[in-house]
């Protein structure tokens, strides 16, 4: 099951936009899109590309993540503007606000509320394709959405499932989030972390290093026990060739002193291709399971807090192998205007599931 994920169909940049124009144009496709209606400038990019190709054959559900009164007013205005643009671009659409924190006790509940929303989802008649646009969705929303949509396509083998991302690593750095206090597993990604075993646990923690995410990773690390090894994930190759070096410098104290990382334990994955992240985690999972079989209970714990592209690959691995994903929900966001900016977007398309993979791996 999902054996094709290590070699599934992908498109990047101009090839991705060409795929959207060629595949979705012509009246043979009816698409349902789930995306964000938030402040992030990347919110409208994928929806506009799909709308231009599909017209009235595109239906959409836009998620508006609400973080209460703590939201910055300028960001709220940007979200309102993006929401208006999305409603105008796709007439067959609706916007659903999801409260990320329970107002009673401030507990993160966004993932559960999304799951409730999607449990009532009724796809338009004749839907051939589902697209999840992760560009501007938080991890606490994007990961549960992906898992639920993959389960829907499992039950409907004629459906195609696509993952799309408008990526800009420099923009990721400029969007700064204040982490909450509670560390928890992403909804649907508790994995085996809390299950009993006859063998002692030996956990490998895979934190995805990202600029200005140190506070979140520190809280996650403090919540974990039975950690055998820490294997930080770094972006390389990356648009900025020095990005990995700068992250090692930023997290130097944690790497050397608290996490005690062996230089051989760094994991380098492409900032552009999510399959690289998926394959690296899959390879580690298989080797570790084989090495400690009948001695320890091996567990991989993922914490993808940076690039959406790299996080998408981690998400695929977590779904396929039932891995734990630990995270800290963001209380509020702000924009760091001093961060460097790059004007161009990387467009990524991953064809997760569909009839094109029927018979994959069979002789």
Question: How would you concisely characterize the structure shown here?
Answer:
The chain folds into two domains: 3-168 and 344-357, Rossmann fold (3-Layer(aba) Sandwich); 177-333, Rossmann fold.
Kindly report the average pLDDT value: 94
Number of extended strands: 14
* Helix and strand composition category: alpha/beta
Fraction of residues in helix: 25-40%
Structural domain tally: 2
Low-confidence stretches: none
Q: What is the distance, rounded to the nearest whole angstrom, between the alpha carbons of the first and last residues? A: 16 Å
Q: In the CATH hierarchy, what is the class of the largest domain? A: Alpha Beta
Please state the overall shape, judged from the principal axes of the Cα atoms: globular
Which strand order spans the largest sheet, edge to edge or round the barrel? Answer: 1-14-6-5-2-3-4
What would CATH call the architecture of the largest domain?
3-Layer(aba) Sandwich
Largest sheet: 7 strands, mixed
The CATH topology annotation of the largest domain reads as Rossmann fold
Radius of gyration: 20 Å
Strand content: 25-35%
Secondary-structure element string:
EHEHEHEHEHEHEEHEEHHEHEHEE
Number of helices: 11
Description:
This protein is α/β, with parallel strands linked by helices. The protein is built from 11 helices and 14 strands. The protein has helices at residues 14-24, 45-54, 73-89, 110-119, 139-155, 169-174, 214-223, 243-250, 252-258, 274-291, 308-321, and strands at 10-12, 31-36, 58-66, 93-99, 129-133, 160-167, 175-185, 201-208, 227-230, 233-235, 267-269, 297-304, 324-335, 346-353. The protein starts with 9 loop residues before the first strand and ends in a 10-residue tail after the last strand.
